[in-house]
Amino acid sequence: MTPNDQPLSIGSPPLTGPALAAFFSRDAVVVASDLIGSRLTIAGAGGRIVETEAYRPDDEASHSFRGPTARNAAMFGPAGRVYIYRSYGIHWCLNFVCKAASAVLIRALEPESGIEDMIRRRGVANFIDLCNGPGKLTQALGVDISLNGLALDAAPFEIGMAEPVPVVAGKRIGITKNVEPLWRFGAVGSRFVSRRFP
DNA sequence: CGGTGGATCTTCT
DNA sequence: GAAGATCCACCGA
């Protein structure tokens, strides 16, 4: 296990209530960028968000593009809740719902707390591989469909806003439609992203 | 290190 | 019936 040589951003206030609603009731592209550097924990396990992607209703790659279904119902609900879905029959993916059937996919975290829980759930000892991908991240944090639709300002979630950090944008990963928009965002220079940015 | 193929199953056509 | 917002093992360089 490699040591974490990044300073912890302790002391960022939890984002709750009207402030949380205001933050997420915006375009997913803006929210996805603003989330970089913030802190997410679920039942005490989590860290700094270093990679996100935005998905919008006018976006052919988005689950909400063809309207509401049983699966994507949470995307059409209030902003500031989570949308969770099964990916490739195997993994869970975690999204934060934003304005008007848009959402932000949480793709990578820099682990900070609950490291032992993450290692146990992931079954790997390599620190860098704990949360550097959307499926790995949900496995490390114990996320499954039972959390779908829950609000982000109540247990087991905690969101903390951090000081702004430099952000880089790139093309989204793993999609085949609407591939051109630069709606993937990452913390500049982070070693904890799922893939390097060009 | 980069590319490739299999796993696995829900969702929508 | 096919595709999919992924991960991992394995191959070759």
Automatic annotation (TrEMBL):
Source superkingdom: Bacteria
UniProt KW Transcription regulation keyword: no
GO molecular function: hydrolase activity, acting on glycosyl bonds
Protein EC: 3.2.2.-
CDD domains cross-referenced by the UniProt entry: AAG
InterPro entries xref list: Formyl_transferase-like_C_sf, MPG, MPG_sf
SUPFAM superfamilies assigned to the protein according to its UniProt record, in alphabetical order: FMT C-terminal domain-like (SSF50486)
Keyword line: DNA damage, DNA repair, Glycosidase, Hydrolase
First-tier enzyme category under EC: hydrolase
UniProt family annotation: Belongs to the DNA glycosylase MPG family.
UniProt-listed PANTHER family: DNA-3-METHYLADENINE GLYCOSYLASE
Protein's name in the database: Putative 3-methyladenine DNA glycosylase
Biological source species: Rhizobium calliandrae
